[in-house]
Design goal:
four-stranded antiparallel β-sheet, alpha+beta
Length: 103
């Protein structure tokens, strides 16, 4: 139990918030209902497919994921924890599933 609490506290305080300037570059975020609607209409790749791709490539698991409008298209911004304990922020083209950037 102590390990779970320690892990929670680590992620809660070690993860910097997305700066407002960076958030503005991403554009408007989708609500859960809007993201589900876009997926159901076939406008974006389902997140489960993105997660499978990232799991094969990096191992590990998804920490957070959001869908944004950016530059006339949509992108997923996924926070991912690798098997080695490295936290990545991965931007994925939501329409094609192609990884755009990793930081």
């Amino acid at each position: 139990m102590k390990k779970i609490v320690a892990l929670f506290l680590f992620f809660a305080f070690a993860t910097p918030a997305l700066p407002s300037a960076a958030h503005a570059q991403l554009g408007n975020s989708f609500t859960a209902d809007q993201a589900r609607d876009a997926r159901d209409k076939g406008n974006v790749v389902p997140l489960r497919d993105i997660f499978r791709q990232l799991k094969r490539r990096y191992g590990g698991y998804q920490v957070d994921a959001n869908l944004y409008n950016r530059g006339g298209g949509q992108v997923y911004v996924v926070d991912w924890m690798t098997e080695k304990g490295e936290r990545l922020r991965i931007t994925v083209n939501a329409q094609t599933g192609r990884i755009i950037s990793t930081s």
